[in-house]
Amino acid sequence: MFRSIFRLFPFVHAFRHHAGRAAVSRAGTVLRSTTCIAVASAALIACSPTYDWRTVTNDTQGYSIDLPAKPSNDERQIDIGGRPMKMAMQIAEADHTVFAVGTVTLPSDDPQMQRTALEFLRAGLARNLGATPNAHVTQIPLAAGGQVLGIEMTFSGKAGANQESRTMHARLVARGRHVYQAAIIGSKNPAPEQIDQFFQSFKLD
């Protein structure tokens, strides 16, 4: 089931996979959280660690970002416009919310290919939450100075077999042979300062 979800919507797959792993890990780690309880849900964890922000630099994919916990990594092949491409993800979870960065590696830096990949990601987010996003253009900073144009979106909808309510904030941007999707998803909105910490720290090489 997870593989089919990833093909349709890579971020949802990674979210569920990470949440499930975290639940198993915390069950055996009393010192990390003595108050967490088991939840009969594959999507969310009832108790989460506090935010422990750290800057993660991904030299391979060409970005840096602050994440609220030690990230896990995932990678899949996806099909965009009839062409197989690799999507790598870094995922961290805190306070009932998942923070993730997905990077699609394109076969070239052709602008049309970039637009196709951006539309694939945008459409996948909308389709899987069954929602039309509130979207606008934003600036994504570069580590060396300057900015590039990206898209900022907010979704509220239902996801998964149980159609549970989710809120998502996402930024999409293309640079060179990479298209990026930075996203926050959870059953509730994190505090504004946590959202700002994540997105304002996102920088491309």
CATH superfamily: Mog1/PsbP, alpha/beta/alpha sandwich
Which parts are unreliable, with pLDDT below 50 for 5 consecutive residues or more?
1-48
Number of domains: 1
Please tell me what the overall shape is: globular
Return Rg in Å: 16 Å
The secondary-structure class comes to alpha+beta
Instruction: Report the strand count.
Output: 10
CATH third-level topology? Protein Transport Mog1p, Chain A
CATH class call: Alpha Beta
Number of helices: 4
Order of helices and strands: HHEEEEEHEEEEHE
Mean pLDDT: 80
Task: State the distance separating the first and last CA atoms.
Answer: 35 Å
In what range is the share of β-strand residues?
Answer: 35-45%
Biggest sheet details: 7 strands, antiparallel
Percent helix: 25-40%
Going across the biggest sheet, name each strand in turn. 3-4-5-9-8-7-6
* Secondary-structure arrangement, i.e. CATH architecture: 3-Layer(aba) Sandwich
Organism: Paraburkholderia acidicola
Protein name: Transmembrane protein
